[in-house]
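[Automated response] Your request has been received and processed.

Submitted sequence:
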Amino acid sequence: MKDPYRGGCACGAIRYETTSEPIVQLHCQCRDCQRRSGTGHSSYLTFAQRSAMRITGEATSWRVAGESGNEKIHAFCPVCGAPVYLTFAAMPELIAVHAASLDDPGRFNPGFVTYGIRAQSWDRMDPGLRRFDRMPPG
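Generated structure:
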């Protein structure tokens, strides 16, 4: 059995677990991610099957349309306020968890940076990562 990806919010009221492997791991520098994280970017592991992710606890959510016009649903803990995961209205089976919400954040291995066009000069990413001005094609 694969070592599961486990994590949750800061206070432990929301927990998640999956044995699936992420389909993509990335940093996003869009303005929504900057505002939500309170820093220059957010970091995510995206999984293809929301149904394979076991989530306990009740998240509160809010919705925002991304630059593409697609609606993103952000889930956070109503107790501690920590962001935990997000889903996408146009692709309901995808789920992305915040890298820092992992019990072992060292498992995060970003492959690229999105929305580099929105990067703040003080938020420097690994120069070895491929950078896209917006979302990558495909």
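Summary generated for your ticket: Residues 112 and 129 are 5 Å apart (CA to CA). The first strand starts at residue 5 and ends at 8.
If you did not submit this request, please reply to this message.
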